[in-house]
Specification:
Blueprint lengths: L1 H7 L5 H18 L5 H19 L4 H10 L4 H16 L5 H14 L1 H10 L1 H12 L6 E4 L5 E4 L5 E4 L5 E4 H5 L3 H4 L6 H4 L19 H4 L18 H19 L10
Antiparallel strand pairs: 1-4, 2-3
Helix pairs in contact: 2-3, 3-5, 4-5, 6-7, 6-8, 6-13, 7-8
């Protein structure tokens, strides 16, 4: 609701929120390749509905006018923008879970983590996106042709069963790769520890491509350094920062946080 108001100056009704929830429930499996034809069609209908909400608002006509000046299909571009907003901007399990898990991390040791955040909010939130996701899934939907058990160097194992659809979510594990995030000792435990001061934060794959490479691109359409990445990469980070800034003083008032890092 606040995102639509903040980004588009549009208020959503209670019925609109129900539609937004319906969209998320259909969009997630559809984006993962496990949705149904009916679910995909419904996503399209709801996306059209929310795009029209923005078109009917105060910024919609201005957006179309600006698109015309640039020789672009303004309505098509607005539809893309609304998609990014409703899926990457507010959609579970991405940003909403990221905000929740970041706040839970702070609440687990309020004095210490509030001090860390206030000292370097950028690194703190980058570490949060590394461990708690919030961007592209890096996800493939597959139907295994045979039953197979994957065993990782950590000892963790997972069995895929023949004919049963499953997700391969590779960036969640990559973000805990001890070779990149394990420090000098390449330690598995340290790679999974919350430490905003660690090296290589911009090598995380939360947003599908490495963040350091995404920043080399002039816009979200990609470039040679990062041909494909989550279109909500920077939107997610901005909203996360706004959410934490908004609530952290309620969790730990200024002056109450420990300076011990």
């Amino acid at each position: 609701v606040n995102l639509f108001k903040h980004a588009f100056n549009v208020d959503l009704t209670s019925d609109d929120l129900d539609k937004l929830h319906e969209f998320h429930m259909a969009a997630l499996p559809t984006a993962g390749g496990l949705g149904t034809e009916a679910g995909g069609k419904r996503c399209g209908e709801l996306l059209k509905f929310f795009t029209q909400k923005v078109l009917n608002g105060p910024l919609g006509p201005k957006f179309l006018e600006e698109g015309q000046k640039r020789g672009l299909d303004g309505e098509a571009k607005l539809k893309e923008l609304v998609w990014v907003a409703v899926f990457a901007g507010v959609g579970p399990p991405g940003l909403s879970n990221l905000i929740l898990n970041t706040l839970l991390q702070i609440r687990s040791n309020p004095n210490s983590y509030a001090a860390m955040y206030r000292k370097d909010p950028t690194s703190f939130l980058m570490e949060a996106t590394r461990l708690f996701e919030g961007g592209g899934f890096g996800m493939s939907a597959v139907v295994p042709s045979k039953t197979f058990t994957h065993t990782l160097s950590t000892g963790f194992s997972q069995t895929e069963h023949q004919g049963a659809p499953s997700f391969v979510v590779w960036n969640n594990l990559a973000n805990r790769d001890p070779a990149i995030f394990g420090g000098p000792a390449k330690d598995h435990a340290y790679a999974s520890k919350f430490d905003p001061a660690r090296e290589n934060l911009e090598r995380q794959l939360t947003f599908i491509a490495e963040l350091q490479d995404i920043k080399k691109c002039p816009n979200i359409t990609g470039c040679e350094a990062a041909p494909r990445f989550c279109p909500g990469t920077f939107l997610v980070q901005r909203i996360l920062r706004q959410a934490v800034d908004f609530i952290i003083d309620e969790l730990v008032p200024v002056g109450k946080a420990s300076d011990e890092m």
